[in-house]
Design brief:
Shape: elongated
Largest sheet: none
Radius of gyration: 21 Å
Order of helices and strands: HHHH
CATH architecture of the largest domain: Up-down Bundle
Helix content: over 70%
Number of domains: 2
Length: 150
């Protein structure tokens, strides 16, 4: 009974992640979200689906037709989310190509370089803050982080 409950919880997590992915896609189309949010949501769907498969493998007969079908569905989800992530990453790269116009004057070029370095430092700080938020979330949720730190 406990194993079935765990499968149900995992299935609900897949549903929640899928809902988040649909919302992210909708917001992106409306210009209210970024490709990065879509990528993060897609990766969460893939992760939740993989966890559901693991939970189901514990309860199911390994060679049963339902387990093979579930595994095929899980592989299809993984493949679809991988395609979505790659498409979003290509979109980001194309958008960045369009924005890069180099100022040929010396002072203007130096100012652009300073601005680019400033942006890198700001994004590195934002990344560190995001990693810390994720660590705190995992600590609150699981009592430990992914690297085993309590």
């Amino acid at each position: 009974m406990r194993g079935m409950w765990f499968c149900l919880v995992q299935a609900r997590l897949v549903a929640a992640a899928t809902h988040s992915l649909v919302e992210s896609a909708n917001w992106l189309v409306q210009g209210q979200a970024s490709e990065e949010k879509l990528i993060s949501s897609a990766k969460q769907v893939a992760s939740s689906t993989a966890q559901l498969l693991v939970a189901c493998k514990v309860k199911a007969e390994p060679d049963s037709s339902s387990m093979r079908g579930l595994q095929a569905a899980g592989n299809a989800v993984k493949q679809a989310t991988d395609h979505l992530v790659r498409a979003a990453q290509r979109s980001i790269a194309q958008e960045q190509e369009f924005r890069l116009v180099i100022n040929q004057r010396m002072v203007g070029g130096i100012a652009q370089e300073i601005g680019a370095r400033e942006e890198i430092l700001r994004k590195e700080r934002e990344l560190e803050e995001a990693h810390e938020r994720l660590r705190q979330l995992r600590l609150a949720k699981y009592g430990t982080t992914a690297d085993g730190i309590r």
